[in-house]
TrEMBL record:
SUPFAM superfamilies reported in the protein's UniProt record: Heme-dependent catalase-like
Protein name in the entry: Catalase-related peroxidase
Gene3D superfamilies: 1.20.1280.120, Catalase core domain (2.40.180.10)
Entry keywords, A to Z: Heme, Iron, Metal-binding, Oxidoreductase, Peroxidase, Signal
Cofactor(s) needed: heme
Active-site residues from the entry: H30
Gene Ontology CC annotation, any one: cytoplasm
Entry similarity comment: Belongs to the catalase family.
Broad class of enzyme this protein falls into: oxidoreductase
Enzyme Commission identifier(s): 1.11.1.-
Gene: srpA_1
Alphabetical GO biological process terms: hydrogen peroxide catabolic process; response to hydrogen peroxide
TM regions (residue ranges): none
GO molecular function annotations of the record: catalase activity; heme binding; metal ion binding
Length: 308
């Protein structure tokens, strides 16, 4: 007797339906990417909110993978289906230990639970063959105004992966050496500023314009970012990834990310690596956001397929 699949297994199945996967050795989503290496330099202010070792004084090696959304390995960098762009990071903590952050260029998620995400992706899939006057996805968006807001959220093309900001979306709990805790969300901002392309300008770009640009500018022109945490105030909803917190919330800088080079063994590294948003050091814990808690399970299903 076959056991019933879990919600995350069903989500990844539908992602395979949507993107004609799985593909040998490749991710089920955010398949097309570029892997870079550099250093993370912590800021003194990090200690205000966390005792995590990599956020104290010493710099650490970092690997960053920028990606296009969807499971299409050849999706053009200027194809709107590839937005949101992704930024996955791994900070080396020494002794074979690491911590990961997995961020999106859009500051919020379309739905608050894995069950609703499964429903949404299924509606997208079924709309392709639906004869109904109101397609399943139109019905889903009509019933779920937050998902509609996500779909309509402006997603301009960046001039470079180094001119885009990235958002953790899900909240984490940060605890400092005095035992004081706050909830916060990661925000990565480019030191060179956010630079977006006009629609007509985006359309004439090369299909690999983002992947190539970031590889070719290094090491002459390092790509630099500020890593910060937006701190929740009492009453802010910390377990709902559809809600953007007010802009006036305190921002605490955790440090600077400096990317120096394209990773030499990038294809092998990508294949063997599963970035895990719940790979956390002491001093940082997950919130109870059900989207956050579902992610490692979904990523593991995708990872399992790629290692088969
Ligand atoms: C329940 C919700 C979600 C599901 C089911 C899901 C599913 C997936 C899957 C299957 C992968 C491939 C992972 C791998 O093979 O290593 C992936 C990658 C990724 N996801 Fe998600 N995801 C979810 C939520 C999110 C959120 C909230 C964000 C952003 C904050 C995000 C950003 C990314 C990024 C950037 C990657 C590429 C990671 C890499 O470069 O290896 N995802 N996602």
């Amino acid at each position: 007797e076959e056991r019933e699949k879990s919600t995350v297994e069903k989500i990844v199945d539908v992602q395979h339906d949507l993107f004609k996967g799985p593909r040998e050795g490749l991710r089920s989503n955010h398949t097309k990417g570029v892997v870079l290496t550099g250093e993370f330099h912590p800021a003194d202010s990090a200690r205000q909110i966390t005792s995590a070792a990599h956020l104290q004084q010493q710099s650490s090696p970092i690997v960053v993978r920028f990606s296009n959304a969807t499971g299409f390995p050849d999706i053009a960098d200027n194809d709107p289906r590839g937005l949101a762009k992704g930024m996955a990071m791994r900070i080396d903590l020494g002794d074979e230990e690491y911590t990961d952050m997995v961020l999106s260029s859009v500051p919020r998620f379309p739905v608050a639970t894995p069950e609703a995400f499964l429903e949404m992706l299924t509606a997208v899939r079924d709309s392709a063959t639906s004869e109904a006057e109101t397609k399943p996805i139109q019905q889903f968006l009509a019933d779920n105004p937050k998902a509609k807001h996500f779909v309509e959220y402006p997603k301009p093309f960046p001039a470079s992966f180094a001119n885009l900001s990235y958002h953790g979306i899900n909240a984490f709990k940060f605890t400092n050496a005095d035992g004081e805790s706050v909830y916060g969300r990661y925000i990565v901002t480019p030191l060179d500023g956010v630079k977006t392309l006009e629609k007509a300008d985006a359309e004439i770009q090369n299909e690999n314009y983002l992947m190539n640009e970031i590889r070719e500018r290094l090491p002459q022109q390092p790509a630099e970012f500020r890593l910060a945490v937006q701190v929740a105030e009492p009453g802010d909803e910390v377990n709902d990834a559809t809600i953007i917190w007010p802009e006036d919330r305190q921002i605490v800088e955790l440090g600077r990310i400096v990317l120096y080079a394209a990773k030499a063994d990038a294809a092998e590294y990508e294949k063997a690596t599963m970035f895990n948003p719940l790979a956390l050091p002491e001093g940082i814990e997950p919130s109870a956001d059900p989207i956050l808690l579902a992610r490692p399970g979904a990523y593991a299903v995708s990872f399992q397929h790629r290692m088969d």
